[in-house]
Amino acid sequence: MRIYHNQLSSTLAQNLSPIWLIFGDEPWQKNDSLHQIKNAAKSQGFDELIRFSIDDKFSWDDLINEYCAMSLFAARRIIELEFVSAKVNEAGVKALTEITKQLTPDVLLLCHGGKLDGATTNKKWFKALSAVGVYLPLYDLDTKGLGMWLNKQIRQYQLNLDRQSIDIMLSFFEGNVLALDQELQKLSILYGQQAINADTISELVINQSKFNPFALIDALLSGKTDKCLLMLDQMQQEGVPAAKIIFFINKELNQLKQMHTQLQQGSNIAEVLKLFKVWEKRKPLYQHALKNGSLENTLIALHRIADVDIISKTTSDFSPFQLLADVCICLYQSSKLKPLSLDFH
C-alpha cells in the first residue's frame, strides 16, 4: 500500500500496519512521519523500541532473532531499521522476505532511509515488504504544496499572521521546511495568538531558503526567470559549485533542443512528452517551455552555457553565477541578448 504524507494521519486512524517504509530526503516530513507512527504504536501498547542501522556490515541474523524473540520488558515492540544504504545483500533479502511470511501483531517493523530510485522499489525485498505494509515516499514540497502546509501549521500553532507575513515566510524558507517549522514554533512561543505583521516577521526571520539545481530547472522550465536569478544568488551564497549547476542546465537545454527538433518534424507536444517519458507531474513545466520557447532560443542558450563553462574554468573576473543568469534569461529572451557577447577575456 502506498500513501503520501498528508494521508498518514487518516491511515493511522484506520489501521496500524505491521510494516512501515518511510523513504525520502525531506527531513521535516520524515521526522513527523516517524513521530506519528511511533505515537500511534505507543497508544496501542508498543512500549519497547529496538533500533538497528542497516549497512553492508549488518548481521541480518540479529534482525531475525530480535523479531522472533519474546521481550522481557514489553508485550509489544517496535523494531526500527535505519537504512544507511538501500543496497541489501542476499542475506538481507532472505531475512526481510522471511519476516513477511511470519508477521506478528506484537512487533511493528519501521524502516526508513533516503530517497529510493525506481530500481530499488522493484527489488524483491522491497516489494515483499510493501505488499504487506505501507510505503510512504517523501517528496520536497513545491510552491503550492508548501503554501498549503504552512497554512495548516499556522492553524496548528494557533498563530495570527497576515497575508503579507505568510508570503514573506514562504519566500524566506522555500525548500527548507524543517527550518520553517522551527521558526513557527519560535513565533508561537514569543507571540502566542497575538497578531503578527510583516514588519515583525522581517525583523525576526533570517533568510534560510535552500535551493538546489532541480528546483532551478523547474523554475527555468516554467519561465520564472526572476525566481531563477534569486535561486542562483542564493546558491552562490550557500557555496553550491557552479560546475554542478552548469551540468544540470546544459543537460536540460540539450533535452529541450531534442524536443523542439521533434516538434519541427511534425510531432505534437503530447507525443514528444511521451517519447521522452516525462512524468505526469512535470508535464506542465515542459508544456510551458515548449510553447513559450523555441529551437532558436535553445540553441543560443546552449552556445552561451558552453561559453560559461569555459569562462568558469579560467581566471576570469566575472562570476559564473552572473553569466548563468544570462543563460536563464536567454532561453526566453534571446532576441534581446543575442547581440551581446560572453567573450570577456
UniProtKB/TrEMBL annotation:
Pfam family, one: DNA_pol3_delta
Enzyme class at the top of the EC tree: transferase
Top-rank lineage group of the source organism: Bacteria
Keyword Metal-binding tagged: no
GO annotation terms (biological process): DNA-templated DNA replication
CDD domains: HLD_clamp_pol_III_delta (cd18138)
EC number assigned by the record: 2.7.7.7
Residue ranges annotated for the DNA polymerase III delta subunit-like C-terminal domain, each copy included: 212-316
UniProt name for this protein: DNA polymerase III subunit delta
Organism field: Thalassotalea algicola
Gene encoding the protein: holA
